[in-house]
Every structure is written in C-alpha cells, then in structure tokens.
Amino acid sequence: MKKKSECIKTPKQEGEKTLTLANRLGTINKDLEIQRDEKFIHIPLVRRPSVEELKTLKEQVPACKISIHSFPERKQLTTSLAQLLEDKLPPHLLASLPHAIDFVGDIAIVEVPLELDARKSAIGETILKTNRKVRTVLAKAGAVEGTYRLREFTVIAGEPKTETIHKEYGCQYHVDVAKAFFSPRLSFEHRRVATLVQDGETVVDLFAGVGPFSIQIAKNHQDITVYAVDVNPNAVEYLRKNTRINKVIGRVHPLLGDARQVVKSKLSGVADRVIMNLPEKAIEFVDVACEAIKPSGGTVHFYSFVNKPDSLESLKVRFADAVKKCGRRAEKTSFSRLVRETAPYEWQAVLDVEIC
Residue 95 pLDDT more than 90? Predict the structure, then answer.
C-alpha cells in the first residue's frame, strides 16, 4: 500500500548529502520507504522543515525542493534493542535501555545505565546483531575529562579495540576514541562550516583534534590555508596521518601546542576565519581568536554549552562582551543554532560571528 507524502526531492548525486542533512534535522518519515528514479531521490517527510531548516538545506543542496510523492510503507523488522531483548529483560529494565548510539567507523559507542550494568554484554551483542558494519561495541566508562577531552571505555562486545576509520562527506579520519576526542554528531557542522569558507582564505582551527573541520575545508577548496592546532600529541599524530590520507598536505598545517601560545608565536593577525570547537572552555579563548583574526576583521565559529534557562541570545551577549574586552567588536551574528543535546537541559550551540 502506498501513501502520498511531502518529501524532499533531490538529484541522485546529492542523495547522500541530503539524506544526512534530513536525518540530522529529524525530518525523515521512517515509516515510509525512500524512493529513487533515474534522476532523483525522494525522501519522505514526517514534518515540513521550518524556514530556517529549509534555508540550511538549500544552502547545502541548492537543487533540492519540497515535493509530493507516493511511498510504500516500510516493512517493520524486529531489529530494535528493546524488541530483541524483550524476552531477556523485565519490563522495568527494558525502559532503561539506551536509545542513543554513536557510530564512529565500525565502532558503536553506548552509555549503559547503572541498573543495566550486569546486562551490558547482552546489550553489546544485540547491537552487533542489529548493525552489520559494527565490529566493536564500547560502553562509556566515565565522563569526558581533562585537557585532552578524553573518556574511558569498556569493550562489551566484538573486537577489543578503540581505533577505527570514520568516513564523513568524502573524507576519512583515522582516530582512536580513547586517545583523541571525536564526535560523529558534529558531521553536519563540519560540512556546514566547510561550505561557508571562501577560496583564498586563511583559517585557524584552534582545537582541531584529528582534523574533521580542517580536512573537510581543505578537501573542498584548493586555494586555502588551514592551520590546525591541538594540544593533544595523539590527536595531532592522527591529524597528520589524516592530512596525508585525504591528500590535503600543503593546505592543512598541523601544529602541536597550546592554542594561546601557538597563536601568539605564529598566527597573530593571519586568519580570515577562526573555528573554536571547545564548548567547555571556548569563552576563555575569545582573546586568542581575536588575536588570530586579521586587523581588517573576519569570522569566528564559536561553540559553547547552553543550559536552561539560558538562551542563544544570552550566549550572544556573553560572547560579544568577551570580544569587547579584547578591544574588538562583534559586528553581526550571521548564524546561530542549538547543535545537539548533551545532557538534560543542556545543549551545544554554535554562533557564527563577524568580528571587526
């Protein structure tokens, strides 16, 4: 049986990109099957995208549009954790099963509640069964901590490893999740920022990690200079490797060291654009970003946490005040949004701000 539904109609060559964007926005109707014809992919919608969401889609995929199409209903398969464990766990524990799973390459990362700790092996094996590409399941064994933003993991199923290769928008990233911070939930941001960069720019990525922002930018622009800075030697080792693998040597320049010291000694006044993806402490480095930006001005992509009852507006004020203390001015916030929920009543947010 087929149902008519609003959908995103997108050219086939843009299909993967559009699917990723629509999935990030939570607009795909997963009860209906995606349809393909000779030229287009039709992605069924559970709701019409907001004006801002549609603008974001159009910025990334100009040829996509909202349309109407007939879709067959998706066959329901018994593949969820709850369904596969319903005969192994009592109802009150089924309700505690984790719903969010992060996939980094062939590694699945899950947070197992304390009340399910004794059943974590069963949970891990079930995740392996329901995801054919997964070879290892890791359970979070602590919070993200320390200067390097690392957390401990426990292998609960599959191969005993923490190293993998993650693919994202045509780039490959070698990463050890126990040695270098990496979040697959930021893939849309990596791509979004890369599409904003203009040929000829100099970009300073202050907290580059293994290079997801820097390499995506360089992969999309030939005439570009990206200085990728990180204090974690393991992250920079992987960054150098990823620079070679993605063939962006000469465009991405890995720099090991504290961002404040590196900018002061090597990168003062060179940047058209600065990326500040260190939400825990980015506000403490606003002066560093201001020093890196050219005297004529530039753009800062500032990531921070927003806790209820705070809002994006209050974050804009805090950032503008910090810029003012550096003797510069936050001229305009060209874009802002809540990127992802990181805890109850807490979100990671981004501001794109023009500095003069």
Answer: no
Residue 156 sits at φ, ψ, to 5 deg, of -115, -5
pLDDT of residue 83: 72
Q: How many CB atoms lie within 10 A of CB 240?
A: 17
Q: How far apart are CA 245 and CA 12, in angstroms?
A: 27
Question: pLDDT at residue 258 above 50?
Answer: yes
Reference 131, options 182, 77, 71, 73; nearest CA is 77
C-beta atoms surrounding 328 within 10 Å: 19
Spatial CB neighbours of 118, under 8 Å, sequence gap ≥ 6: none
pLDDT of residue 242: 98
pLDDT reported for residue 80: 62
> Which residues, in sequence order, are CB contacts of 188 under 8 Å at separation 6+?
20, 21, 24
CA 275 – CA 352 distance, rounded (Å)? 9
Q: Which phi and psi angles does 79 have, rounded to 5°?
A: -125, -5
Element (H, E) at 235: helix 233-245
Segment 139-174, tens digit of pLDDT = 999 888 889 999 999 999 999 999 999 999 899 999
Cα–Cα distance between 301 and 337 in angstroms, integer? 12
Q: Predicted confidence band at 75 (pLDDT cuts at 50, 70, 90)? A: low
Distance separating alpha carbons of residues 229 and 278, to the nearest angstrom: 12
Residue ranges and CATH numbers for the domains of the chain are: 2-72 (3.30.70.2580), 81-161 (3.30.300.110), 185-355 (3.40.50.150)
Three-state secondary-structure class, residue 248: coil
pTM for this one? 0.77
CA pair distance 169, 191, nearest whole angstrom:
7
Which element (helix H / strand E) includes 83? helix 81-85
Q: What is the mean pLDDT of residues 288-311?
A: 93
